[in-house]
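Quick check before the chapter quiz. The format below is the same one you will see on the exam, so make sure you can read both the input and the output lines.
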Amino acid sequence: MSTPTATFKTLDDLESDQRVLVRLDLNSPIEDGEPQDNRRFERHAETVRELADAGHRVVLLAHQGRPGRDDFVSLAGHADILASHVGRDVGFVADTYGDDAIDAIGALEPGEILLLENTRMCDDELPEEDPEVKAETEFVQSLALHFDAYVNDAYSAAHRSHASLVGFPQVLPAYAGRVMQTEYEANTAIAEKEFDGQVTMAVGGTKATDVIDVMNNLGDKVDDFLLGGIAGELFLRAAGHPVGFDLDPEQDLYDTQWEQNHELVEEMLAERGEQITLATDLAYEAEGERAEIDVDEIEEKDVSFLDVGTDTAEGYADVVRDSEAVFVKGALGVFEDERFSVGTVTVLEAIAETDCFSVVGGGDTSRAIGMYGMDEADFDHVSIAGGAYIRALTGQPLAGVEALKEQ
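Here is the expected output.
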């Protein structure tokens, strides 16, 4: 199989002794006002450590939450978590481009690291606008004067056209960090690599439109789509089974999606039916335990289905074992509840045991790997991106990536 050609400069192209502004994505769960450690810190630490070890002066930008939400907090706690992963001190200043920030940046010695305050506390950051507009903001113009280069490592935020993501590449030499580089190459591999054998995609999650867009964009590359989750149940409804609707009128997981998209789902089944594999059994809760029923035996939906059934999971695993490449987008069930983790975990374990090229991503799906004792090293790539991963699979451009490509 061929490898995607580089479309932007990376850290390998960065000159020595630079004052570098680096955009990370450290957005994290907040509990009692404090950020919680997660895989993003570990991944971004690789880029930060490499730059610091090379003797660059490293200044970091990141965001947390959105204005008005409970998780919109300072990045002071993030600095300590990142430092534990980098293995070096990470300074923090509660300012982004004011005098305090500029003074702290000017005081940096080679190899030192400084994290600036939450970018979304800047009025210039959040509106989605063209890169040329963002480049003219006071935020970008003021801060860029103090740097030699800009590095974007925030692939998981790259679908946003925010100042810290698209403005700086307009005014500074720009490079991709290691997370940006590896995420881009892995997540575009399905479209850009050539595979001799079967290419399989396990597709779950909550949105039928995501599944339809993926199929439209990658239908000529993927031999078999294995469906699960809410989206999979909607496809079962389109195939004539009495499932895929809400039992609770306040729930609204299925009915609105069906009303808006049923024609598209039906068309997709008609056009690509030979490529689409639907669940043959589904799992639900009965008296606190996991119970299963064959899809063909369902006469009416009177329970909530929370996972594909065991037979379906094992059938999907058999397909995986015969594949040269497997991509995962979204969970096949509510894997956070161990009773309904069978579909997601069985497929992931089959991928881990198989010598195939594999990429796992989409929302929180990748969390199942650590949650159920699997080793990330058994997968070619485990994405930390959600929205950006979906956009990559559906062929939509990522504003942050495009800004790097224009260098």
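If your answer matched, good. The mean pLDDT is 95.
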